[in-house]
Amino acid sequence: MTMKFGFGQALTRKEDAALLRGAGRYVADVAPDATLHAVMLRSPHAQARFVIHDLDRVRAMPGVRLVLTAAEVAGLGPLPTPGVLPGVDIKVPVYPILAKVVVRHVGDAVAFVVADSVAAAKDAAEAISVDWQPLPHVIGAMAALAPGAPRVWADRQGNLAFETELGDAAATKTAFAQAARTVELTIVNQRLVTNYLDTRGVIAEYDGRRFTLTLGSQGSHIIRDIICNDVLRIPPDRMRVITPDVGGGFGTKLFPYREYALAAVAAERLAKPVKWVSERTEHFLGDSHGRDNISSARLALDDKGRFLALALDIVADMGAYLSCYAPYIPWLGAGMATGAYDIPAAHVRLRAAYTNTVPVDAYRGAGRPEASYLIERLVDTAARDLDIAPDALRRKNLIKPKAMPYTTPTGKIYDSGDFAGAMARAQEIADWNGFNKRAAASKRAGKLRGIGIATYVEACGNNGPETAKLQLDRDGGVTVLIGSQSTGQGHATSYAQLVAEWLDLPPERVRVVQGDTDRIATGAGTGGSSSIPVGGVSVDRAAKTLVEQLKQLAADALEAAPSDMEIADGAVRVAGTDRVVSFADLAAHPQAKPEQLRASSEFGTEHPTFPNGAHIVEVEIDPDTGATAIVNYVVVDDFGATLNPLLLAGQVHGGAVQGIGQALMEDTVYDPASGQLLSASFMDYAMPHASDAPDFVFETRNVPCKNNPLGVKGAGEAGAIGSCPALINAILDALWRNYRIRHIDMPATPQRVWAAIAAAKNPTGLGL
Predict the structure, then answer these.
(1) pLDDT-derived band of residue 762, with 50, 70 and 90 as boundaries?
(2) Domain identity same for 521 and 546
(3) Full strand arrangement of the beta sheet holding 612-621
(4) Rounded CA gap, 515 and 492, in Å?
(5) Domain count, the chain
(6) Of the residues 571, 603, 635, which one is the last residue of a structural domain?
(7) Which of 372, 369, 376 is closest to 390 using CA atoms?
(8) What is the domain-level CATH number for residue 209?
(9) Domain interval for residue 431
């Protein structure tokens, strides 16, 4: 029987009513009595020695309660880097809670000031006297690795953070020696700032024994454990972390930051709640950034256009410190280097560099968008160089369904998928064959038209393990406790659907509790598109167990056999009769033992899921201004199985818009001379608006996942993975058709596109 609220149903999000009415509760909305307010003093220099003077004067200012510098928190441990690489010796530099002698990027933390009000704290921070001795600095990974570059860490040889490799160097070299053709391309995957709706914040409270931190996160347990074990050096049971509503995380809220430990220390010393909320420019200067790779790629082909080998040289900018999972991010991407293609041999050289910039860490997709962008740009370039249609070259080289399970040269094992089938369906929807007619019409209107395609496959959906606990409540509803964390995905709705699949309860009768380490014993948080592939399996299995227990309880109450019991409309009845007992009556039944009304299940797996699909984008470019308009956008994805098509479409749309932002406008710009972040506000950092988002056409062409009990494949990051290469390929298609422009880097801003056209029109540069 298909439950009307269950798996596959297009339920609207039950979370939205409160959020749309302004009834959400975010960190900034939390205000305990007698709360004090904190601000951070940050470095104005990219690299400098410093000495702080005359703090007694600042501490005596009106309203000032506490000023913390490195000296006052000398007992705190540094922020750790648990995301190291297997078999790679990385000497992790100290990432101090407050810089002591040297700052290493603009925005580096120097002092934490607590006062009666934000204004008083700001006044005090501005009054702190600091003697700065600027030091040489370096911006950009390639500049950092150049001989003689200024060192970010004076006690280390050069700025190389680590170097590793994947694949088979010898086999790759042999394949290139035998190749009929080779294609080369170097691309920039620019640095991004993760601009979620609500900036980070924390409220710290201390009751004399335990801390309570209220903060926006992607996983309360992760942050509690790192702050307690590594920074405060106290048992985790001495801290409770609560996460209320969160307006986006995108990877950047998955790990701890300096302010969380500092607020806890201040709350303990002052015996009052301490609140810190980041301002937007401070977010640009203090929260981890994303992407920032420069990659050179070479592709070997035989005389029939079949791929033989892939060689990559990737340089990743780590920033000044190694953030929590930073080393792991480019390594994840390198593991997906060959994408959806049957490439027999591959070798990836991966280097990471320190620079005097904000540390880089996970951002939606975490390495996989970088990998997809690189291989899809390279395949399009190969098609152009060989004068082969880009779809034809892909069809020739995409992994066939009959090859599954397929082991890639970097060791990934794809369990399922029909890559060519998804591409063909996307072409059908996009009317690929009718493009030339549309391009001619655009040309008559004075516009350049281009069409771009990108296939993708990613590895995700195996973060965990995750435990779900279900409780039948007195009112006949069910409470779900789980350690994942919704940051806008709609967990309250999706988990309710999994419960409804077994218990046939409407969503409003399923209460989902997340983000409280006192109520929920363990949790892996939300990252890597794992909430449904891992947490969902836990909920599903716990719900199945609870059903069997309730059937047994109802059978005893109704004096019938458990095999005759069926679930319907929030009750258990004897099949084919009117003998029924409601869930509420079962919860209150005198014979019901507490353990019969509860069920739990833990699920974890080392095997990732491999969502995949194809994006096709059609654009029009105004050659006089360089402005790009998206006129059609088609996505066909394989997510294994669809729990809720509305939530799934929202995830894909959101991810694709983030990709559009990167492809067309977002750019984090440092001045190499001064080390200043020039794009430190929305006045200088462009973000996509609603008007920049096209009307997406989205379909699924699902092939059930063999690695997951629900058959699902992670979906949260997919839109951000396929979008950038499809859009840039479309832009380059238009520019190549009209001006033979072979390359352009993101973001393809109007200025950059216009400049490329101008250079192509006048290659000598004379007369401009």
Answers:
(1) confident
(2) yes
(3) 448-457, 612-621, 628-638, 696-700
(4) 12
(5) 3
(6) 603
(7) 376
(8) 3.90.1170.50
(9) 289-461+607-761
Q: Are 189 and 263 in contact (CB under 8 A)?
A: no
Whether the predicted model's global pTM rises above the 0.90 cut? yes
d(CA 49, CA 154): 12
Residue in the structure block whose two tokens are 């019409």 = 441
Q: What is the pLDDT of residues 228-250, one digit of tens each?
A: 999 999 999 999 999 999 999 99
Tens digit of each residue's pLDDT (9 = 90 or more) over 54-92: 999 999 999 999 999 999 999 999 999 999 898 898 999
Interatomic CA distance for residues 527 and 529, integer angstroms? 6
Q: Is 126 exposed, middle or buried (0-12, 13-18, 19+ CB in 10 A)?
A: exposed
Contact 423, 398 (CB under 8 A): yes
Q: Which two tokens stand for residue 21?
A: 């009415």
DSSP secondary structure, 193-217, as one string:
E---SSPPEEEEEE-SS-EEEEE--
- Other Cβ atoms less than 10 A from the Cβ of 588: the count is 12
Determine contact, residues 712/532, Cβ cutoff 8 Å: yes
User: 603, 634, 662: which is the final residue of a domain?
Assistant: 603
Kindly report, residue by residue over 452-463, the tens digit of the pLDDT: 999 999 999 999
Closest CA to 703 of 425, 369, 496: 425
**CA pair distance 259, 56, nearest whole angstrom:** 23
- Whether residues 614 and 597 share a domain: the answer is no
State how far the Cα of 712 lies from the Cα of 243, in Å rounded to an integer.
Answer: 27
Q: What is the pLDDT of residues 189-204, one digit of tens each?
A: 999 999 999 999 999 9
